[in-house]
Fold each of these.
Amino acid sequence: MAPPKLSEDAEKTETPESESERAATEAATTAVGESVEKVDGWGLVTGKARYTDDIPTADALEGRLLRSPHAHARVRSVDTRAAEALDGVEAVLTHEDVPAERFTRTGFPYPAPAPFDERVLNEQVRYVGEPVAAVAARSVDAAERALEAIEVDYEVLECVVDPEEAMAPDAPTLHPEPYENPQENAAPERNVVCETRHEEGDIEAGFERADAVVEGEYESQIVQQLPMETNTTIAWLDDRERLVLRTTTQVSHICRDKIARAFDLDRTDVKVVKPRVGGGFGVRQDTVPNQFICAALALATGRKVRLKNSRKEDLHVSQTRHAQAVSIKTGVREDGTITAMHVDITSNTGAYGCHALAVLSNAAHEPMSVYPTENRLFTGRAVYTNITPGGAMRGYGAVQGTFGVESHMDEIADAIGMDPVKLRRRNVIQEGEESFEPPDSESKPELESVGVSECLDRACAAVGWADGPDRPDGDRYERGYGVALAMAKSGVPNSEYSRCSITLEDDGTLTVRIGVGDTGQGSETVMGQIAASVFGLDIGSVHVKADDTDATPWDNGAYASSTTYISGNATEKAARDLAGKVRELAAEWHGTDPGAIELVDGQVAFPDGTSTSLESFAAEAFEGVRGPKRRLIGTGEHFTALSPKPFAAQLAEVEVDTETGEFDVLRLVNAVDCGQALNPANVRGQIVGGAVMGLGQTLSETLPFGEDGTPEIRGLRDYEVIHAPDLPEIETEIVETYEPTGPYGAKSVGEVSVLGPSPAVANAVDDAVGVRITELPITDAKIRDGLEGGE
Amino acid sequence: MSRKERSTDAVHLQINGEGERLDIEPGETLMSALRRAGHYSVKNGCDEGVCGACNVILGEEGLTRSCLVPAVSCDGGEVMTVEGLLGDDGELHPLQEEFLDRGAAQCGYCIPGVLLSGYDLLRRNENPTEEAVADALSGNICRCTGYVQQIEAIRAAAERLHDSEPTDRGGR
Amino acid sequence: MPSQLPVEYREVESVERAVELLASGPETQIVAGGYSLVPLLKDGVETPDRLVDIGGIDALRGISRRDGATSVGALTTHARIASAPPVREHARALAEATDSVGDYQAKHQGTIGGNLVFADPKYDAPAAVLALDGTVVTQGPDGQRRIDAEEWFRGPDETAVGPDELLTELVVPDTARSGYVRKSAYSGYAVVSVAAALETDGDRVESARVAVNGAKPYPVRLPGVEGTLVGGSLDDDLRARAAEAALSDVDPESLLADDAARGAHRLRLVRSYCREALERASAVTHVH
């Protein structure tokens, strides 16, 4: 069912009334714009916060999964008799015991832009670690003995791990059975999930007009979201036989929907609880095997089942960032104007096609948007291979694409002998211009707040780019500076839907019900700030309820940086709707006009100069002294074709040892435009956190797979994530533009800063020693190679 | 009870100053036993001694990864979890306040372990440099914050503790 | 095994008792800090039926001097070794190696004994021990053995410790000039690490021991480097030539390989870190 199309009125418009509303409340705003403490903060620092597994589970069965040791195999048979006979074992499930209908785990509202190519348990397994059987037992011991007792007869099939090889005619076919919901130009017989082409203008004519044509290829590696809490689900049937999942999710409503569909349950018989969750970064956007299988075990046993992935399991089988090969060809004039740009991407989507098309598409459209040009072409394809499926990871393709485009911009600058900052200024997007959106997106691409140029100014000023930044003398060590521009989004146009309901309690406090998927980024706090600000209340007067699908209206959840913009707008509308009702009722009581009543500082203020506290007002309304008993509720919904873009300019300073190729990132400057910063400390945290995650992709993280598809990593000790002593100096500059369609002028900020570090560092290394690394991660070995190659 | 003759069913510990009897399962780690007993602030982030989410202060051993410690070895010992930072009247420790003030906790999963690393640092170094704080956190993985605000919060807490009047609560 | 750790767990207060338990009864392994062993137990790589915890044997902790050598108890932590004046003065490479441990908690709770028994190519101490001509002392049912470092590191994941033996002590003879350096991984471990120990008369190199960990799965000496150094005059040119001679008879493709470095890259790393280790050793001028 497609989300409802709302009238134009549903979007934010500037009416005289709302202007004065905003003026009035802005004067009194105590919450928005301040770095208020997170609403759940006390629990976080005292250790009292309850994450998914932080409840008594003595009454729960322990779930365990038997995982395929083969990258590609058909399960001929599974003998579970011995396992089932073991003492303490309550259920052993194979593909024969779970629904056979196929679906996609991809976390968008149904149907989602991904092929329905997987089942709860598959008969054909396509990556090492794919679940083959599931056990629920009364103890860990029994569960593990049961796993050992299951006998699987595999027909081992040929596997393929490289996307180019996978598309070759002699490659094994991962998905031979036709499936529903195939994506654009799907050719699964060649392991192609989707193939896309998007042209604007005339690309060949554009190249003809160019004075120079520059080509480059850029590759990025597989990394993983690595939230500190592993994928965990506790599932049970409640006292009304409803299936309840307490699970690590960022999309509770979508999760509920998918579980209900998969098991053919009424939606009303499924409830998803999202407790405090230890990070998401996109891995929780999907409904993952851990969730489907735990639900299956709960349904099969009728008991509570706990299934928590170990860190090693998650490292091996949890979603990853798609490895991509990005080829770019650009035509440019002598004066630096880009006349044509062709970006071609091959994306390795792994065993299943979740997010294959959407990540592929985003990888080109976002970075290409930064430089509007009349003639541009994007071609790409996503390919099945026998490794862990790619999924959604912060940046969502734009990390790989930005590494390509922003490295490429410096190569263009080099080719025509122009300063790379000047080249960017020549071509960068301006206010009023349009972003490059996928052809079917139905978006309104014209951008109203575009702070990227100011971001670039600030980043350059931080290192003194214009006058020539510091380059200490010395033979052996060279200093270099590199810049990158980045653009993200505030939700997927015409796809995000959020509804918020706010109750004015009879003591003047507010309960905000909205299904946001806060996994640490602070969305509940931001929603609370928005609601509080409309009334001039303190954040402490607001309770945000977001963790239970029974209690909240629909929200797509946290992905595509949608929460502040989409859910925030819904919250602001709900608060203003409620404010309107307060004014109406107050006006009725006082025989005056609602428009003449102001809500300020938690007070209801009348034209005659008197006022009453919101608390008193609410109490009186509830008592019913002046009419029927009332407890006022406001609602608001938001659904839009707009997706205002946050921007960033990120600048890296590196020092390279010309003898060894070793290098240090000394400094990373991040100038970010996310509209108005509703919670500056929170915003800064998002910027820094994203930048450090981006640095990890740039310098050290990688998930290697063997030729036979086996994950080579032993555990977290082998995954090179950035630690505190590794940090460069990190500077953040919040460039505040005002996004007129955003709640209190805000855009989103969750992803933009993860995009720039890799090209910024690559550009800085090139600036320092004339070596361009086009394959991530950037290592001293590669630099050394480059140095020696040049000699 | 002599050290050699330990019960394998339970250990008796002082946890944040309170005596407690923890039932333990065979071959269980301290992290697992604490969590089963409801001490949920001790978190399982990796179960291989790398991420610091399971940190506790274990008696004289000091800052310890509880996932590397056999529960059975702890009998008679003292354990401090992050709950032990709270004052007698439930007041937050300056470390906790600074983390709250400065947005240093995002998802919060690493925070109990990080706070204990910070606490351990401030016990031995009243006035740590940024480098010393980063070194003290080298055994903690945080995927959300990028560590910067955490380092700032710990230094701010150090300054406050440094400047504050001596109180009856020794050792804090 | 179903439970994470062996069900049977004993604490001992003497080396003798530890050896008794090792030599009899169910398959037994020694645990101290747990940093090396416990993850291997959980992964099912090591599967003893019993753990013997030697953490209570205070006699195994500490650093002492005797007969021109420094003795380090097996339970001594990296942090303690790194800051101990006798080690800094007489076995500098070992102080620098233990100081390099990247994870604060591993540095303060991990032990030298654990490092030597598990001898992972990513550990710091092994190269220093080999370069300093350390002797590993073990206690077993047949008594005490003293094993030269070269004999100790036998092969990939293989040391000379007997199945019923306990590593009790590391003895390092005094070296006037030594140094250690490593290439760090973000995880806090070493990618490659090199230690150099030199005996000099003025600037003339009388003897040299140079060892690398992370090139092969076990630490090895670099005879090409040593041969170039001996008899020469210690200057930049000598150090450069000596470093270039590292592993010259080894096929780079046979070296350890991972995403940090492989093949020719790893070889180059060894050589440049070798040179730096030699520089560090040379810089020690306070000679007894």
Amino acid sequence: MQTPSTAGQAGGNRRGSCVSKSGRRMEAGKRGHVQVKAEAPLRLKLVGVSKSFPGVRANDNVHLSVRPGETHALLGENGAGKSTLVKMIYGVVAPDEGQILFDGAPVRISNPRAARRLGIGMVFQHFSLFEAMTVLENISLGLDSRLSSRELLAEFNRVLETYHLKLDPRRIVSTLSVGERQRIEIVRALLLNPRLLIMDEPTSVLTPQEVEQLFETLKRLASSGCSILYISHKLHEIVSLCDTATILRGGKVVAACDPKRETSRSMAEMMIGANLKEIAKPTARVFGPPKLEAQGLTLPKPTEFGVALRDVSLTVRAGEIFGVAGVAGNGQNELLSAMSGETLAPSAEAILLAGEAVGRMGVTERRNLGLCAVPEERHGHAAVSEFSLTDNASLTGRDRMELVRFGLIDPDKATNYAAEVIGAFTVKATGPGALASSLSGGNLQKFIMGREILQRPEALVVCQPTWGVDAGAAAAIHQAIVDLAARGSAVLVISQDLDELLTLCDSMAVINLGRLSKTLKVGEVSIEEIGLLMGGVHGDPSATIEMTEHLHAHPI
Amino acid sequence: MQVATPIASVLLTMLLGAIIFELIGFDGPHAIYETFITPIVTSYKWQDVLTKAAPLIIIALGLSLGNQAKIWNIGAEGQYIIGALAGAGVAFFLPTAPGFLIIPLMIAAGVLGGMAWAAIPAWLKTRYNVSEVLSSLMLVYVALQVLNYLIGGPWKDPNGHNFPQTPPLTPAESLPNALPGTVIPPGFVVAVVLTLVFWLLTSRSVYGFSVRTVGAAPSAARYGGFDASRTVWSTLLISGGMAGLAGILEAMSQLGQINLGFPSGYGFTAIIVSFLGRLHPVGVFLAGLILAVTYVGGQVAQTVVHVPNATAGIFQATMLFFILASDILVRYRVRIIREAPRPKAATAEASA
Amino acid sequence: MSLAFIIDALVTVVGVTTPILLAATGELVVEKSGVLNLGIEGMMLIGAVTGFAVAFNYGPDLGDWAPWVAVLGAAVAGVVSSMLFAVLALSLGSNQVATGLALTIFGIGLSSLIGAGYVGMTVPSFDSVFPDWLAGDPFWRVLFGYSPLVYFALIMVFAVGWFLNRTRAGLVLRAVGENDNSAHSIGYPVIPIRYAAIAFGGALAGIAGSYFSMVITPMWAEQMTAGRGWIALALVVFSGWRAGRLLAGAYFFGILMTLELYAKASGFSFLPSQFWAAMPYIMAVVVLAVISARGVTGSEAPACLGRPFMPNA
């Protein structure tokens, strides 16, 4: 089997140093033995690993090799099989076929405890933390060995020192920032003295500066001989951090390569398996009068873990697509709730819709005036999983689409409306009676977007429009947004995906800790500047780090 | 599945009951027959069954609404008591008022009394985020003490030989045991009408839709323009009102006076009715009839087969056990077609 | 108000407190693991009738051991009945509130059925733990004059408090009640832990029930626990799910219940007896409001209380 390193030596590949599984090429013209280096055995080797669930083959004949001290990226779109693969390595699920070898020896990892015993640690994307308990108690719970609290504290401090981390063992977790909480997870894993550390999408909740800090920790870890399996779909991070990358698509390995020799674009194309389409945007765009505005919108934080909005002002004109960039947890959901009417503004004038002060109006009133919204969370917020598509259509469309008479919903009208959405947005579903839970992420998102767009809103606010959505559906959604704007509506797109915003938007602002930066014209500002604005202080990296640390540690 | 499981629960209960009784030493099959079948086939028992069914159905209709919104009113028994007391209080306050005036007033007072008692958990939940399960339950026992106090003190029947009980209600203040010429109690008519009302409400109205949505996904409900607090209030007030209505109807037609035996546990049994009926108005109607059968049948079995009266409770509880156990079949269907739940802050979908 | 009166009153307080303390201690562990079991009253009654039946039927053969074996029988009965709840709520994921209520209704009916033949009979009761000269002393009996179950209850509440806060197993149990999904991802067996907690709660509830049928009045009557199971539930809430406060709260409730008894008996009309009877419940609601209002940082209710465990993996 060819490994990335030997394939590179074979030479003569069009895609840089990558070997594509779909086109196996023999090394023509290379005579004699491939030089076999006397290396230490592979830290981790997966041979022909497969796993199926009812109705879907999550992993299909996956081969993976990770050397000691190597930082190996696992790339793929959502649904490609990364999570399942890693769950098998960590013992959460068992493979149906194939073999896992650790340090050269075949192993059966029956549960996470067994994985930890081997020296495999994992930092999950969603933290397994106990909010009401202290940092030290949380770490103690994550450990298998029974250490007395004194011993644990000593070990804890040792790890903090070795990796230059900062964490107070006595703090209650509910008072910590997201970055600090992740640190607990990392310390938990490091206390194992792991030989393989798996990190699942670790940076989705960090500021750029916290990401740098994380990378430093990981580099220190790798240099001490620990291998790192790094799952992400953030191509630029992988380029800067990882030695090798394995790309999954549809459960299969489609490529293994050296990220430093690739471009983000080529890797994305390997992930998607198609050429990225350009979004058709009319070039000369004229904007009308302001349709959606926020003026000095200030709101206290809704819950203990929420973010307060401070003096947010923005203007979206008719026909304009306005983007709000930012790292997760900086007030995006609060902003959407304030715009949609789920949270009422302190004054009516804080939010204007076509000049009308709607800040004190509820969701239904705003919708009737033409303000529609799409929240981030598909399941349980934008749609109800247990309800049919017809019911989900009634959820937001019952007034604008006139489905209600004398307090009763007309079932035929509701069904027709749902069917219209399904048809117009090519939603793959068995019909309006299908349950929302039976749709794939992309199709459900298309339905939700379609449901709002067909209501012909004057202004549309969406949060994470293509979150967890396959590339085809994402492209369709982007096109729908552009078309809507072209028809004269104002669109506000809140997203953590900078590339998405840069493709779609005419103007942009960055939200950080509840504050909105000044409006930037897309095309006149660099990603680095946006990154710094996301971190908080324009132009001063060390001050940014300090301020971010401080503000995250003591949420206002 | 929705219909099969309640039926199966009843049948299984009958089977299990027969076996258990045999083991304890009673004539099992005979006891089951007397409990479940006799009340249905014996025409002079029908009025009893309908009389018992009425309050169960009325209360359970209200409870089912709240249960759909995942708002659990466990305190219906307390609201039932307070409703009856409120209605009776009106009667005592206006002892000479004519029938056509006093009856509607008493009924209205009963409904309002039940609503007022349910308003406490509603306020606690919306204002202080107190679990309505715990608060409504605690208030049942407070209501019991209020009852004990009133019938043993200020409202004690002067002619009652010092027994704790209220004076009996006058004919003007009472309802007939059955509509003239039939075996149908007036309370049952109310139950039928309310079943139809609730049916329309839950299946077609926007309000019913809002209640279901709040129960299924509170964030989606808010997004859809439905206020969760208002739903808490409305469902608790409605179920409290229904319980109060049942209470005053009972006091007016059944007993004629309120004594220590008045709290008959209908408020708790109605919870069983609500679940057995799968929270659907028609199901609740049928389930109410079934449980009424076990009440009446339990008394029959006591006289004929000599099993203690309390065994009706065993049957009712067992039916509830079965229906709760069978819930998993209904939910399992929903689970395997649902996508794995989504993570909060980042991209990867846990499926596949 | 003579000394003898005060001693009498205190002894009464301890007497009425013990069963609710036992039942509440058990329920505390259950709720700390994230489960709400409303079936306490039913389990207590099943324990009461079982203990009585064992003592009645095997008493003569067991001699001095009879009460102990009977209490053990009550505990076992409590465990078995709690398992009925556990299987439904844990393994089948049923609605915990409804299931607990069903258990109570079932327990009331079943205990009446089984107890039908025992109404009015008596059984031998416990000898007091301490020697007669101490236990019978008119003054010292306030500390030493009780049956073993009283001291057992005290030992249990201290043991449970130590277990929950000072041992690793207790930490794990609290974690399971705090965030069952996280505990599951780490690898802790959430369901078995909850089963164990429920069984423990059932055992203590059964023993608490046996206190009624074997200590307070060593005879059987239908529904003799008279709603004490619900007070125990109120007590757990009132205590803010903390063992120390549970102990204090139990005796506080005991005082209230004793006041009710005295008010009923002597008819002193300062406040009607029903007022005292209602107080534990009112206080529980008040405390609940205070705790819940304080929001997350002050909240002590286990975050997963009453929610079925649905693993995300």
